[in-house]
Every structure is written in structure tokens, then in C-alpha cells.
Amino acid sequence: MLKRTFVAAVAALAVAGLAVAQPGAKPNDAQIAHIAYTAGTIDIAAAKQALAKTKNAQVRSFAEEMVRDHTAVNDKALALVKKLGVKPEDNPTSRSLSAAAKQKHADLAKLSGKAFDVAYAQNEVAYHKTVNGALESTLIPGAQNAELKSLLQTGLKLFQEHEQHAEHLVTALK
After folding, report:
1. How do residues 25-39 score in pLDDT, each as one tens digit?
2. Is the entire prediction scored with pTM above 0.90?
């Protein structure tokens, strides 16, 4: 469960796409931890927005899963960084994610009914695709701690299942 929920937090990177601090720069473990925590917080907010707006049972179920996973991961991720002696470090990526999520939240707030449901589900698909790419190209290679790296690798496999779930949701809504 820890592995699945940790990946869920990292997934929120897709809300805005992965922005690296500087071109060619790889985040360190402290920055990866902050990115993961920020991502979890962002996806909790997105899912809570969906829960407040949707009347669709499938969207509600998906959003409840996101709240559950990301809440658990924030708790577990903080416990892991404490165990590893890593203090999460704010960075341009986490700040960029927060700014983009704020804009996406505002855009989705203007929608209602099926238009909201479809836009939320499509955003979740894009989000998962971006996260999987970020895990493969940036976060896993950038993680120096073996336990963190292993957790991210296991999470990537699990998160690919979340991407499929989101794709099925989009199909069901159309």
C-alpha cells in the first residue's frame, strides 16, 4: 500500500507537466520528496473539487480513490523522508506545479455537469501519462537513495494501472 500511495502523490506532477529547476538539472532526493508531497497535495485538491462538483458515480469513485491514495502517501512520504533523514526542499518544480494547479482548478471550476466530468477525466489521463514519463526520465534516475529509487520504480508499475483506469473513465463518459 505504501508503494502504491507514494506513486499516487508523484502522479500529481502531470497536472502541470514536469518542470525541472534548470534545463538539464536533475532534482536531488530532498527536491524529489518535496515534489512528491506537493503533487499529493495538489491531487487531493483536484479530487475534492471533483467530489464537490460531480454527480457521476464513476467520477466520484475515481476521485475518492485519489483522495484516499494521496492522503495516505503524504503521511507515508513524510514518514519515509524522516526515516531517511531527508528534509523536503522547496524548488522551482514544486512551485511551478502549485501555480499550474491553481490555474487548472480555476478552469475546472467554470465547468459543471458532464463538461466538468469529461474535462476532469481527460486531465487525469494527461496527468498520469506525464507522471509516468517523469518517473522514468527524471525522478527515478535522479533518486540517489536506493529505498526511494526502488519505491519509485515499483510505483511506476502501479501508476500505469491508474493511467488505464483514467482512460477507461474517459471512454465511459463519452
Report:
1. 778 998 987 877 887
2. no
In a domain, 9, yes or no: yes
Q: Is the residue at 44 inside a domain?
A: yes
Q: Domain span at residue 125?
A: 2-15+28-173
Give the type of residue at 105: H
Tell me: pLDDT of 144 over 60: yes
In a domain, 23, yes or no: no
For residue 73, is it within any domain? yes
State pLDDT tens for residues 59-108. Answer: 999 999 988 877 877 777 788 888 888 888 898 988 988 898 899 999 99
Query: Number of structural domains, the chain?
Result: 1
